[in-house]
Amino acid sequence: MPTARNPLADALAVFMQDTAGRRNWGHIGLAEILKKVRATEAQWSPAPDAHSIWEEVNHINHWSRFVLDRLEGRGKPTKQAWPAGRGGEAAWRAAVSETAALHARLVRRVAALDEAALTAKHAASRYAMAQLILGGGSHIAYHVGRITLLRRLYRHAR
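Now predict its structure.
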């Protein structure tokens, strides 16, 4: 994946890959935490006003698509999105597969950026692309923590 063409883009791509993958330097990654989650656990919520793991995953996907669209010169302002997860095991596995595919595309796109692209701002944003990438990776990491907590709460509730 890294090309050594642009060390900063390579470092950002590795950060994104590790955060959405097995683990980064500080914690388990998104793909790893989702491996053993079943649909019933993904749909469970500890309280009526709390999000489920499935909603967390759909939310991560929404904002990761937003970052990818911006990196590819598309996209417009968007609002918060917490789509509910519906269906059984096959639907849940499809959602997890969509997450993996989306983040693979995102990593490839980040790795392909040159220095000018990393410092450029999307027309509709005040942030440079490098800031957007770091924000996207931090957003994933934050929600990995929430998913980890939801898994623990689910196990204790059962």
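The chain has a mean pLDDT of 90.
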